[in-house]
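S1.2 Input.
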Amino acid sequence: MKLPTHSQAISVPRSILALSERDKRWMEDTICCLEDQIKQSQRRSVMSIADLVLSSTYNFYHDAIPQEARLIFQPLERLQSRVRDILQEYESPILNDVLFLSNYMMTSFNTKSTPLMKMLTGMELLLEKLDEWEAYASKRLNSCREEINSLK
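S1.3 Output.
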């Protein structure tokens, strides 16, 4: 198969171009993070608070940290997938609450503008619901322990 050159036009199907709002936000966040990494010309560990450089006017309750905030989305996706699998076999108001909270966090939280404290409060509520579910769940059949550990 011959690859097109820069001067040749590439046609992309419209279905690929039609992205959901959530996908567009993720794409924007990804581009923003990649631009930051290019500017810094080295990849910093966002998990180490020692590597994080904050301005002197930073307010934990009102300011966002995009590098840290973006870390919640992949574990939330895995959790949602697991919860949906369990809900296919078992009805549970607790799991419905977990799904609602995780959907709310995925769709409403923008990593560039949502304060880290708001995200942490949402994660705390979500983990409380999951701990409640684990008290009733069979460890072998319908546990979410792996997903909970990835969130922590």
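S1.4 Remarks. The helical segments are 14-17, 21-40, 66-69, 73-89, 93-108, 116-136, 145-151.
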